[in-house]
Design goal:
The chain is α+β, with helices and mostly antiparallel strands and about 200 residues long. The chain has helices at about 10-20, 45, 65-75, 90-115, 120-140, 155-165, 165-170, 175-185, 190-200, and strands at about 1-5, 25-30, 35, 55, 60-65. It has a five-stranded mixed sheet.
């Protein structure tokens, strides 16, 4: 398999899970502005949407969208228990958190990374992110270490990556102790360290 990624972007979640399952894979870094990969491929031919992640399978098929890729990898390695069984409420909860991360939290950070956003827009975005962090504290009650069934899952990998962006936009997670502890807990995992080191983040 080949993961098309961008260091520190949401594709890091897929990179983490590939390490969690012990998959054999390679990376091809994408310059999303130029639309080309480090190896010289036209990324738009692989993923017309133009953004990461994308996962090229041995069959030549290409999967896109992080939530889909994460679940595919987990389902190929059920013994690793990174996703609950399909059809259960736990699986639905996992998908709920994946969707929330994608549609709400990930989106909320967008203006904070945009060179075109005004100071007012960035201030509004920070306020929006902080509201999401308030909500996260309701999920991470005392004794709740992970999002689903209190076990690490692909939902945690994606949530970790997006929450970790706080470090790059001046949001101090220590204002939300349970969230800060959650991020630190996941950051300590061997697979997370391997993926972050490979992307030059550690």
């Amino acid at each position: 398999m080949k993961l098309f990624n961008k260091p520190g972007a949401c594709s890091l979640a897929s990179h983490i899970i590939l390490h969690e399952v012990g998959a054999t894979f390679s990376l091809d870094e994408v310059d999303t502005q130029a639309g080309r990969t480090k190896s010289g491929r036209d990324f738009k031919q692989l993923n017309p949407k133009g953004y990461v992640p994308a996962l090229e399978l041995e069959t030549g098929e290409v999967l896109t969208e992080g939530a889909s890729i994460l679940q595919y990898i987990a389902d190929q390695h059920p013994n690793k228990q990174l996703a609950p069984v399909a059809g259960t409420i736990s699986r639905a909860r996992m998908q709920e958190y994946l969707n929330y991360t994608s549609s709400e939290l990930h989106k909320a950070f967008g203006p904070l990374f945009s060179e075109d956003a005004t100071a007012v827009q960035k201030a509004e975005a920070q306020e929006n992110v902080e509201k999401k962090l308030d909500y996260m504290t309701t999920l991470l009650n005392e004794g709740q270490e992970y999002l689903v069934d209190n076990k690490f899952s692909v939902a945690d990998a994606y949530m970790f990556v997006v929450l970790n962006w706080s470090n790059f936009v001046g949001i101090d997670l220590n204002k939300w102790p349970s969230v800060a502890a959650y991020v630190a807990r996941i950051a300590a995992r061997s697979a997370v360290k391997k993926a972050m080191q490979a992307e030059g983040l550690l």
